[in-house]
Amino acid sequence: VSGLAPLLGHGEVRHSLARALERGDLPGSLLLHGPVGVGKQRLGLWLGQRLLCSAPGDPEPCGRCANCRFSLRIEHPDLHWFFPLARPKSVGSADKLSTALEDARAAELAARRAEPYRGPRTGENLGIFVAQMQTLRRIAIARPSLGRRKLILVGDAERLVPQESSPEAANALLKVLEEPPADTTLVLTVADPEGLLPTLRSRCLPVRLNPLPLEEVEAFLISEFQLEPPTAHAIAQLSQGCPGQALGFKPGPDGPGPLESQRQQAREWLEAAVRSDPLTRLAAAHRLAPSGARGTFADTLGFLGLWLRDLAAQAAGAEALVVNTDAKPLLAELAAIVPGSARGAAAAGRLVEEALAMGRNNVNPQLTLAWLLEGLRQALHEA
Ligand SMILES: [Zn+2]
């Protein structure tokens, strides 16, 4: 594959969007929301291809016309894809910043084209900057290049930075939402609609994308990457029905996928909290790199939350709810050490939330983790 990876699932949403297009009443602005990796941006690009296709079927675009070929190579001049980028090194004037961000976007698009299954980027502080939204506004106002319409996709729109303290990026986008050009469809994607400013949210039609059946993710992993069925099964469980997450768990040429590394790190933290040995907890906190990338720390805390839920499920005898299915013997062993962990689950979850908030407030990750593991020990052992 080069260009776009295939879109999996979301058959009903595809049908209703295609019907709205045929009737001519597709809203000017859509908000696709649903869990990370479920395919929100890929569906946005599908809608762009469908909208630009010269000979669409029901509901799929033809896949063969010149418009479709451009769209599938992420090269269609009327299909614009914005997403968070790393802040460029200081570049001076606003014009230069805008150019630097457009160069960075072009480079990222080229990388996605070359490697459609690259999986999610992790451990980076990425944002959508005001200069990008000004570029978006210029594109929205301009006429389409090839046809009569254009589609602009803004992925991970909750990364409009920082919405509250510096509202310019959101304001630039708001202007487009307030006066949408008739030839433009704007699609925003967010994991959680609450993460978007209400002024933006209220101007879009929300469309919820649900996780895919696990069997569908499993079949995709086997057919596309020739994974052994047990491996594909375990990864599908971990993905919780989100193909993008499955890509992050899939082993790569240099070892485990990035999400798999985070999951194993979080498992070590869980063990450190449960096995009542203060030295183990201290060692776990110290193994964190001192300046540890904050994105990764937050993501790994997310996995710790998942392990804690699994431990609670195991302790409550609800083994069917366990997501880390490859670790059932370990979970059984840990549940025997802290049999009250189902009762302590709510308190443990709150501690993880607090640790996430500390991370956002730039508290040192090592200190945060040492505090968290001690708190979890108490919550689990004393429940
Ligand atoms: Zn076509």
Descriptive keywords:
alpha/beta, two-stranded antiparallel ribbon, 383 residues, binds zinc ion, globular, 53% helix, 16 helices
Q: What does the model show?
A:
This protein has 383 residues and is an alpha/beta fold. It has helices spanning 11-23, 40-52, 66-72, 94-114, 130-141, 168-178, 198-201, 214-225, 229-239, 243-249, 258-274, 278-286, 294-315, 328-337, 345-360, 365-381; strands at residues 29-33, 79-82, 85-86, 126-127, 150-154, 184-190, 205-208. The chain has a five-stranded parallel sheet with strand order 2-5-6-1-7, with helices on both faces. A two-stranded antiparallel ribbon has the order 3-4. The longest helix is centred in the C-terminal third of the chain and has 22 residues, at 294-315. The mean pLDDT is 90. Helix 2 (40-52) runs antiparallel to helix 3, helix 8 packs across helix 9 and helix 12 (278-286) packs antiparallel against helix 16. 39% of the residues are buried. Zinc ion binds at residues 53-55, 61-62, 65, 67-68.
Short description:
This protein is α/β, with parallel strands linked by helices and 383 residues long.
Describe the secondary-structure layout.
Elements: H1 11-23, E1 29-33, H2 40-52, H3 66-72, E2 79-82, E3 85-86, H4 94-114, E4 126-127, H5 130-141, E5 150-154, H6 168-178, E6 184-190, H7 198-201, E7 205-208, H8 214-225, H9 229-239, H10 243-249, H11 258-274, H12 278-286, H13 294-315, H14 328-337, H15 345-360, H16 365-381
Parallel strand pairs: 1-6, 1-7, 2-5, 5-6
Antiparallel strand pairs: 3-4
Bound molecules: zinc ion (ZN).
